[in-house]
Each structure stands twice: as C-alpha cells, then as structure tokens.
Design goal:
Order of helices and strands: HHHHHEEEEEHHHHHHHH
Number of strands: 5
Strand content: 5-15%
Distance between the termini: 43 Å
Strand order of the largest sheet: 1-2-3-4-5
Subcellular location: Cell membrane
Membrane topology: Multi-pass membrane protein
Keywords: Cell membrane, Membrane, Transmembrane, Transmembrane helix
Helix content: 55-70%
Protein name: Lipopolysaccharide export system permease protein
Structural class: alpha+beta
InterPro entries: LptG/LptF_permease
Largest sheet: 5 strands, antiparallel
Oligomer: single chain
Radius of gyration: 37 Å
C-alpha cells in the first residue's frame, strides 16, 4: 500500500509531461514498473512501521500482550525474534539497493528523459494556427468527422528562414499519415501556390503564382516519433552505481583533487619565484638575502620609479598580462575543483543512502512495535495516523540532512544519517515506556499530569473515576 501511494505521487507529479505525446502504453508501463522498483527502499521502512504498529496494537487491544507479560516474557524478549527477522529484511534491502536499484535507476531515468523530451502528438484544430511542425504554420477552416478530410487550408512555409515568402492555399484536402508514422501527407485539391523570390539587384522582386488540381505536401514527422537514447550516456551518474563503483569514483575524485592542487603550484612557479619548491626556492631566498640585506634597499612609493621611462609601459603591460593569465588559470582550477567537490558530495551521499535507508527499516520497527503496544489499537485507524506522522518526521529529517550534505554544510555521512541519529533516542524512550506499560496515549494520563503540574482539581473527571472503581 505504501509503495502504491508513492508510485501514484510520482505519476501525478509527471503526468502532464507523459500524457499526450503518443508514447504508448508499454513505455509508460515500463516507466511505472521501474519507478516502483526505485521507490522500494523508501516504501519499505513505511510498510514496516505501519505493520509493526498494527500488529502490536492489535495484540494489545486483544490483551495478548498482557497474557505474554503475565507469563513472565518481557516485551524485549518477545520482540527479539521479530527484530532478528527485520534485521534480515534490512540486509536484503541493502542488497536490493546495491544491485537492483542502480539498474532500475538507469532504465527509469533514461526512459523518463526520453518521455519528457519527446514532442507531443500533432493536433491540428480548426481555425487555429499550428506551428508544431518546424518551418510551417498551418491553419484549417474545418475538419470532417472522419478526422482526415479538411477544408479551407492555409500553409505558410518559412523553412528557408527568410519569412513567410511561400504560401499554399487549398479549398479542401486529406491528411494521410504514412504506414511507418514518419511522414504526414496533405493531399490538397483545387488550390494555389504563391512564391515570392528575390534576385540580385535593387528592388528586383519576383512573385510566382501556380494553380493545382491536386498536390501532395509531405511533412517530416520523424521528430514526433518516440525514440530511445543510448543508456550508456547515463551510466556515469551516481544513482547508477553500486557500493564498489561509488568507492572507486570517490577515490578517483580524491586523486584528481590532489592533482588540481598541484597544478596551482606548477602554474604559479614560473611567475612567482618564492612558489618554487625544494632547492630552487632556498637558492632564490639566499640570493635575495645576500644581495639586498647589507644595503637594506627600501622603496619610497613603488618599484616602478626605478624602472626607466622607456621600459615602464612594457613592464606594466607584462605584469598585467601575467596577472590576467594567472587569474584565468586559477579561475579554471577553481571551477574544476568546485565541480569535483560537488560530484564528490553526490557520490558520498549516494553511498551512505544505501546503508541509511536499510538501517531505517530496523529503526522504524523499534519505533513502531512499542508504539503499537502503547496505543493498543489495531486496524487502519489510529495506527495509520501515527505511522504517517512518524514517517513524515523521518522523511523531513532525511531530506533536510541530504540538502545540508549537498550544500556542504555538514559532512555527507552526518546528513544521510541525521534522521536515524535523531530518532534513535525516541526509539529507546518508546521501548522503555512500553516495558513499563506507559499510559501516554490515554486521556487519564494527561489528566494526572495536569494535576501534578497545577496541584488542583481531580486527576480525571468524576464519571471516569467512578467507572474505573
């Protein structure tokens, strides 16, 4: 059920970009199938949370948990076999995210790219100009019920990029698509062609008018046909990699960043002597000290005062050129380093996502099981509400951590594990509350808490106390 809700959310989000393009049922079915596979790691924690709340809530409502506790079996001991089973489910979820999700991402995202970039089907409506065919503007006066016969046709041809210098008008005609759907034939009858031309010379224009009884105008429709892009173009994206490939890419980016830092020194070395490394740097420093230390040469204002007037302009121009060249080099290195850092963060985030969402299955079970024991309500009423609330909190924390990690505000591991770190204390608190038969979800508990705070009034209404007695 949770997977169905998430798939429908995706469908409603991209419905306007998928429908009306003549894609066909099979590609759309494939897209929904692949997207449902991608959403499994997100739907599985929600399903485990809801099922654990419903199961333990139903057992609490039927006093089965009371019978288990009265027989000397604690809640933790009763949860232990289920926790082991959920741990196994979490391990399977990791394997699924590591080996199946990259393939599904490759299939789904490449197919979604093709669907979103495909042109809509050609729709020619009466008394409206249609410019969907590149280079042409078409208007028809009316269309018969058969969908083929058209009347009062006007076609402006501006395919040669010099304006509307070609015009075709016909009294009636037919729209005939070819068998392979790659062309559309307008079989026009009883019409005129107007063609304005320009010859070499001043104000030397020509106009040609030609009448025809029947003429076939062929439009190329290959651009409207749904085509698939080569999937190899998408394989380098972080969503299409498993753990081994992500680690390899991360190591490659680290080595590339070190090479970029080395390029900074190598670019500056020919122009700034003190940036040279090793013995050459020491030799330069020693030579400068021996030459200028005894005299202690100081400049009143600028070094250019000691440059001859005949060379001053050349020196200044050389300095400006060197500084401009170095700025260009540094800007390129800085941009390359920014792109590498962005890719590094994406790979790190995707790597931790595979582990954090798998661990979320166990975490939400540790939250859902004690919640069900405390609520003591089965079915789809109260458990559904509580499960949605806790999952929304988990999802918001997960998205917030991911955005902070992408922005570089926090480390990638901290951003992707933020939801688990924040909800783990809550899981421990709920387990302790369920072990002690907490009444935090009953109204009597809140009446007693209010009495303890205000020291006035009865803990619960009088009729409630009488019923309890």
């Amino acid at each position: 059920m949770s997977l169905f809700v998430l798939v429908m959310q995706f469908f409603w989000l991209y419905m306007d970009e998928m429908l009306g393009k003549g894609v066909g049922v099979w590609p759309l079915f494939q897209l929904l199938l692949f997207m449902s596979t991608i959403l499994v790691p997100l739907a599985l924690p929600l399903g485990i949370l809801l099922s654990s709340i419903m199961t333990f809530g139903n057992m609490g409502e039927n006093f089965e948990l009371v019978a288990i506790k009265s027989s000397g079996i604690s809640l933790l001991r009763f949860m232990q076999p289920l926790a082991i089973f959920i741990t196994f489910i979490s391990f399977l979820a990791f394997l699924f995210a590591n080996y199946v999700i990259p393939v599904a991402n490759l299939k789904a995202l490449s197919l979604l790219y093709d669907v979103r970039n495909s042109k809509p089907t050609l729709t020619i409506r009466p008394n409206q100009f249609n410019s969907e065919i590149p280079g042409y503007s078409i208007r028809i006066g009316s269309k018969d019920e058969d969908g083929r016969t058209i009347r009062d046709i006007v076609i402006y041809d501006h395919s040669d990029m010099v304006g509307n210098n070609k015009l075709v008008m016909a009294r009636e005609g037919e729209m005939i698509p070819t068998a392979d759907k790659r062309a559309l034939i307008f079989r026009l009858k009883d019409g005129w062609q107007y063609n304005e031309g320009f010859e070499h010379g001043v104000h030397n224009y020509t106009q040609i008018r030609m009448h025809f009884d029947q003429w076939d105008k062929v439009f190329d429709m290959s651009g409207f046909k749904f085509t698939r892009t080569n999937e190899d173009m998408f394989k380098s994206a972080n969503q299409m990699m498993d753990v081994a490939q992500l680690n390899e890419s991360i190591d490659s980016l680290k080595r590339q960043q070190k090479r970029s830092l080395g390029m900074v020194t190598s670019n500056l070395a020919p122009y700034i002597s003190l940036e040279t490394a090793g013995r050459q740097k020491d030799a330069v420093v020693k030579a400068l000290a021996q030459k200028y230390a005894p005299a202690r040469v100081t400049y009143d204002s600028t070094f250019l005062e000691y440059v001859p007037d005949s060379m001053r302009q050349m020196v200044m121009q050389a300095v400006v050129n060197n500084v401009t060249f170095q700025k260009t080099q540094m800007d390129g290195v800085s941009l390359d380093n920014s792109l590498q850092t962005e890719n590094y963060l994406k790979y790190e985030i995707e790597l931790h996502r595979k582990f954090s969402l798998s661990f979320a299955c166990l975490l939400l079970f540790l939250i859902g099981a004690p919640l069900g024991a405390i609520i003591r309500k089965g079915g789809l009423g109260m458990p559904m509400v509580v499960a949605v609330v806790f999952f929304v909190i988990f999802h918001i924390l997960n998205i917030t951590g991911e955005k902070l990690a992408k922005a570089g505000s926090v480390a990638p591991w901290l951003g992707m594990w933020l939801s688990s770190i924040a909800l783990m204390p809550l899981a421990i608190l709920l387990i302790n509350a369920a072990r002690n038969d907490s009444k935090i979800f009953t109204k009597e508990w809140y009446f007693r808490l209010w009495r303890a705070i205000t020291f006035a009034g009865p803990a619960v209404p009088t009729d409630t106390v009488a019923k309890e007695k």
